[in-house]
Amino acid sequence: MEAATPADVLARFGHALADPTRARILLSLRESSSYPSDLADQVGASRQSVSNHLACLRGCGLVVTVPEGRRTRYELADRNIGHALGDLLSLVLAVDPTCSPVDVCDKDEALP
């Protein structure tokens, strides 16, 4: 298996953050490890939805499972992920309120 390039790593991280539920899960796990049912309550989503999002986050390499008897606890795969989330939260972005990221970012043509 080939090592992921820096661009691949950023694309996976970006994919994970692109969904508000996954972003809330990551922010919750930044605070402390948790069980899927607790995460569902914390982020206001169904257990099935959270389970699907956790599978995505595992596939992206951002979270890992820790078996505890019959239960499975989730935590960030690396503490640096928590630091990166903190750094992203501290950014001040100049956002145009009339511009939707979906309208701009999902177009195939390059931005000016």
Automatic annotation (TrEMBL):
**Top-level taxon in the UniProt lineage:** Bacteria
Record-linked InterPro entries:
ArsR-like_HTH, HTH_ArsR_DNA-bd_dom, HTH_Metal-responsive_Reg, WH-like_DNA-bd_sf, WH_DNA-bd_sf
The record's section on SMART domains has: HTH_ARSR
Pfam families (alphabetical) = HTH_5 (PF01022)
Q: What range(s) does the HTH arsR-type domain occupy?
A: 2-96
Which NCBIfam families would you find in this protein's record? HTH_metalloreg
Q: What is this protein called?
A: Winged helix-turn-helix domain-containing protein
- Which species expresses this protein natively? Pedococcus ginsenosidimutans
